[in-house]
Request: fold
Amino acid sequence: MSRQRTNSQSRNARQENETVQVQPKPHKEILQEQAHLMQTIQKTNALPTTSKNPNMLTTQRRHELGKFGGNYFSHVGQRFLPLECEYSLELSARLFCGKFSKSGDIFVSAAQDEIFRVFNSKTGKLKFDKEFSAKDVGWSVLDMDFSADQKWLVYSSWSHYIHLCDLNNPVSDYKALNLKPAIQQFCVFSLRFSPSSDEIIAGSSDCSIYVYDLNTNKRVTKIPAHENDINTVTFADDISSNVILSGSDDCLIKVWDRRSL
Reply:
C-alpha cells in the first residue's frame, strides 16, 4: 500500500513540475497565405513544394531573387498556365480585345466588326448572352474596362473620344467623352476606371496620360508621360486613385503620384 502511495505521489509531482505546452494561435496573415496556397495547388494541380516541383509562392520568390531561369520556365508552363483551350465563339473578324468583369461573372469581347459580345461566365464556362454595336470605331476597339458596379463599360479606338455605355441599355444610354488631344491622328491604347468609378485614365498614342472626370464631364489632367506610345495604364490599388502606373514602347514603366503633379 505504501509503495502504491509513493508511486502515486511521485507521478503527481512530475505532473505538477511539467510545463504545459500551449500552442500559440497562428497569425491571421499566415492562415490566409496558407489558404491561398492550398487554393492555388487545388486549382493548378500543383503538388507540394520540392526542388523539382515548385509551388507558386516559391516560384514568385525565386523570381524576386533573380533565380528564375532554366527549368523553372518549363515548370511554370506545365503547372501554372492553362494547357487546354475551349472555343466558345468563332468570328470572321479579328478579335483585339476581351475583358472579364472584376467578379468574373461577365466577359465582353470586341472585334473589328464593331460588335461587342457579352458572355455570362458565372459557372466558369462562357455562355453567350447578347451583343450590341459599338459607335465611332476607328479601325477596331482596342481596350475596355468595367466600372466597379459592372454597370458601365468604357472603350477606346482610334478617335479623339472614349466611349461610355450602360451594359444593360447600351444603345440609348451612351456617352462620347472628348479627351481633346492636340494631334489629329490619336488613339487610346489603354484605359481604366478609377476605384470609385468617377474618373477614367487613358494612355495614348501621343505619349500622354489623360484623366477624365465623370462628375464634371471633362478632361481634367494631361500628363506628358513617355517618349513613345503608352500601351498600358492602371491604378496602383483598388482604394485610392492617387497613384498611377504607365507602360510604354519606350521600354519604361513609370509611377505617378497625382498629389505631386
Summary: The two ends are 90 Å apart (CA to CA).
